[in-house]
């Protein structure tokens, strides 16, 4: 066999984040078959139908496997400086211990934490990242007095830090998990079930980012069960915390790939979240955006993660525009990116570009993230003649056409 075909298959398989076992399963073959195919050790050239199926799975034109050399990949941008500084601040001594810092009055600390939450919800990630190191340091000082409210504020600041760092994928995975663990420790000190549940959700997210999906789903589900009675007594904030635990559990169930068990578990977690959402309504409680619409947005994400991009596109189209417009800016922008991924996978590449442009207009920092830049790069490679809109978006994302 032409070893160039095997090398191209290996390149695009790795580019899509698939192991040889993953690719073999999707092709209906063994891992050894994939090894032989990529190594050029199979005795005959693969049939055209086999190459076409490989191209479909890898989401590239057939010509890329037959004639094109593997292109040089442009590395997507990493963390912005302010976000990188926030990650570094987690390892500085003044953040971990109160030292000689003067205590900050709790009302002032509460206002500063709230400002960071509002900056996050508005997708001003760098603004939140600039303030958080000092907020964390002052919250540690306040919590050292034994105040339960100060401990809850410290947990909230760490929760926000974790969520912000998780936006930046691989470079921020470890510091994000560190922040999530500290958020949970502070929440448990506070004794506040809402703080504990919200921090537990970030820990589950951290497990997902570490590719420990089964552990994430089990942990989020167990946390929801353990805290349910207390959270149900907590009014809208408690219900939103409970519902979000079920939603992150639904995402966690998708990590092992599509299977009847994964589909059933994800469906059950979404159903449990929907039941809570019916009681909660669409009122945004505690910056979660939880409610029936957010459950619908997670359904789109879950379907996409379960390799059902067509169903994800259909689910996205069922969401009423007015309901989506009522969501916070961060949640809307994130959904537009998910919709763009589903559109790209279903060969609706113009739609994908349009969704990304809408997301950029709404929240430029959301579209500058590394994972979104990689999607833009994929579109550049998949579209035969990229238009000015896509090329301009790529340039703004730091991706060379």
From TrEMBL:
It comes from the Bacteria. InterPro entries: Cro/C1-type_HTH, Lambda_DNA-bd_dom_sf. One of its GO terms (molecular function) is DNA binding. The lineage of its organism: Bacteria, Bacillati, Actinomycetota, Actinomycetes, Kitasatosporales. Residues 9-65 form the HTH cro/C1-type domain. This is Helix-turn-helix domain-containing protein. Pfam families: HTH_31 (PF13560). It comes from Streptomyces aidingensis. Gene3D superfamilies: lambda repressor-like DNA-binding domains (1.10.260.40). SUPFAM superfamilies: lambda repressor-like DNA-binding domains.
């Amino acid at each position: 066999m032409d070893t160039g075909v095997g090398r191209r298959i290996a390149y695009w398989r790795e580019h899509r984040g698939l192991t040889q076992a993953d690719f073999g399963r999707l092709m209906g073959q063994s891992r050894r078959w994939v090894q032989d195919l990529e190594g050029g050790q199979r005795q005959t050239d693969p049939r055209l139908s086999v190459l076409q199926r490989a191209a479909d799975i890898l989401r590239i034109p057939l010509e890329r496997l037959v004639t094109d050399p593997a292109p040089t990949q442009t590395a997507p941008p990493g963390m912005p400086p302010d976000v990188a500084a926030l990650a570094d601040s987690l390892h500085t001594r003044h953040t971990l211990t109160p030292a000689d810092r003067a205590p900050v009055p709790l009302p002032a600390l509460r206002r500063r934490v709230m400002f960071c939450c509002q900056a996050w919800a508005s997708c001003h990630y760098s603004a939140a990242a600039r303030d958080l190191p000092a907020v964390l340091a002052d919250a540690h000082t306040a919590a050292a007095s034994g105040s339960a409210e100060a401990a809850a504020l410290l947990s909230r600041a760490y929760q926000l830090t974790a969520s912000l760092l998780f936006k930046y994928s691989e470079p921020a995975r470890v510091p994000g998990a560190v922040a999530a663990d500290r958020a949970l420790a502070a929440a448990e000190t506070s004794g506040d079930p809402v703080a504990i549940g919200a921090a537990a959700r970030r820990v589950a997210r951290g497990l997902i980012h570490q590719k420990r999906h089964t552990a994430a789903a089990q942990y989020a589900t167990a946390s929801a069960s353990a805290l349910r009675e207390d959270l149900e007594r907590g009014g809208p904030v408690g219900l939103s915390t409970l519902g979000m635990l079920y939603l992150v559990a639904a995402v966690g169930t998708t990590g092992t790939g599509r299977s009847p068990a994964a589909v059933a578990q994800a469906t059950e977690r979404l159903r449990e979240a929907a039941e809570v959402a019916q009681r909660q309504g669409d009122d945004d409680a505690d910056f979660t955006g939880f409610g029936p619409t957010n459950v619908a947005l997670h359904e789109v994400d879950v379907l996409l993660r379960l390799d059902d991009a067509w169903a994800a596109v259909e689910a996205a189209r069922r969401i009423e525009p007015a309901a989506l417009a009522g969501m916070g800016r961060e949640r809307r922008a994130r959904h537009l990116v998910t919709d763009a991924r589903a559109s790209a996978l279903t060969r609706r590449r113009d739609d994908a570009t349009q969704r990304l442009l809408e997301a950029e207009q709404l929240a430029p920092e959301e579209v500058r993230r590394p994972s979104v830049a990689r999607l833009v790069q994929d579109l550049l490679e998949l579209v035969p003649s990229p238009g000015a809109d896509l090329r301009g978006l790529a340039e703004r994302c730091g991706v060379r056409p």
